[in-house]
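dumping this here before i forget
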Amino acid sequence: DLIKPMNYYGYSIVRKNSKWGVLDKSLKLVVPLKFDMISQSLEVENYSFIAKNGNKYRILDKKANWTLKTE
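structure:
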C-alpha cells in the first residue's frame, strides 16, 4: 500500500493491509508487517523507529534491532 522514503541508515517504513513494517535497502523485510503503527524517531538519540501494537510499544535502534519493549 505505501513505502515511505528511505532514512539515512537505509530503512523504509512500509504499510500493507493496514499493518506496518520496515524494509532495508535491499528490500528485505527486517521488521515484519504486524504493527498498528511505526514511526521514525526524531528525538530519541540512537534510535530509528518506534513501533506500536495495541497499547504496547517497541523501540528499534538504527540497525532495526529491538532495544526496548513496554508492557
